Amino acid sequence: MIFHKEYLDLVLVPCGLLIMFAYHLFLLYRCLKLPHTTVIGFENNDKKDWVEKIMQAENKDVKTALDVLSANVSAATFLASVSLTLSSLIGAWIANNSNIFQSELIYGDTRQATMSIKFISLLICFLLAFACFVQSSRCFIHANYLISTPDTDIPTKYVELAVIRGGDFWSLGLRALYFATTLLLWFFGPIPMFATSVSMVFLLHYLDTNTNPLHQHRSSVKQPFKSVDQTMIRTPSDAEYLDR
Fold first, then answer.
1. What 3 state SS string does the chain have?
2. Residue 106 · residue 50 · CB < 8 Å
3. Which positions, given as ranges, span the membrane (predicted)?
4. What is the mean pLDDT of each run of 10 residues along the chain (244 residues)?
5. In the beta sheet, which residues pair with residue 38?
6. In Å, what is the CA distance from 130 to each residue of 15, 204, 228?
7. Where are the domains of the chain?
8. Could you give the angle at which helices 156-186 and 112-148 cross, rounded to 10 degrees?
């Protein structure tokens, strides 16, 4: 049986995707069962404490809170725009029927049907990233409304839920971009795609692992300055001076 280079796509590409999916399932298990061992759980703990301190303050520092959330909205909106732009470019590329990735230099399957699968897979990843970043912006904007509502007794858990969901959608959008990166290397052959998948898993495992203990935030209340009681200071009287 003669081994054709097209067979590499049938072996290496599913193996690379399987490695990526297996790692993210393992990460999901750690986030649900052992959140303190992941960076996502570490950040969520800080976000919960931040929301709690903002909502419990007598005079809520609304401006600072809105500035923080606005920065998250801007970042999510920017990445959503980038994802949508790349999706549009891929759609135009598909319509143009470009043959740039069908060169003989690429060791792998370069047939038209396989190229269509590559383009569609990459397009799905970018569209998924776009949807996640849009949902992230929606959650952060909702948290903006909750925090800035004057004279209200909104439960802190509502704000926490909006902020945590915004962060979760942000993470999902980034994961979709990570998958898109590996699929992008598939255009240059199944070997670069598989190597990128393995390297990506090692890199993500390093970035997603948290070794620091969760910090228990406490209010830093300054101790009042204790003035010296003047009545306790004994000053010599005039009679004592005369006796001397």
1. CCCCCCHHHHHHHHHHHHHHHHHHHHHHHHHHHCHHHEHHHHHHHHHHHHHHHHHHCCCCCHHHHHHHHHHHHHHHHHHHHHHHHHHHHHHHHHHHCCCCCCCCCCCCCCCHHHHHHHHHHHHHHHHHHHHHHHHHHHHHHHHHHHHHCCCCCCCHHHHHHHHHHHHHHHHHHHHHHHHHHHHHHHCCCHHHHHHHHHHHHHHHHHHHECCCCCCCCCCCCCCCCCCCCHHHCCCCCHHHHHHC
2. no
3. 7-29, 73-95, 116-136, 176-204
4. 71 93 95 92 90 74 83 92 87 66 67 84 93 95 87 84 94 94 89 93 94 70 43 47 46
5. 209
6. 26, 21, 64
7. 20-213
8. 160
| CA–CA distance, 107 with 114 (Å, rounded to integer) | 13
The residues that bridge with 209 in the sheet, in sequence order, are 38
What's the pLDDT score for residue 219? Answer: 59
Half-sphere exposure of 68 (CA within 13 A, CB side): 15
- Tell me which residue has tokens 């190229």: 115
Q: Which residues contact 112 (CB under 8 A, 6 or more apart)?
A: 102
Cα–Cα distance between 184 and 174 in angstroms, integer?
15
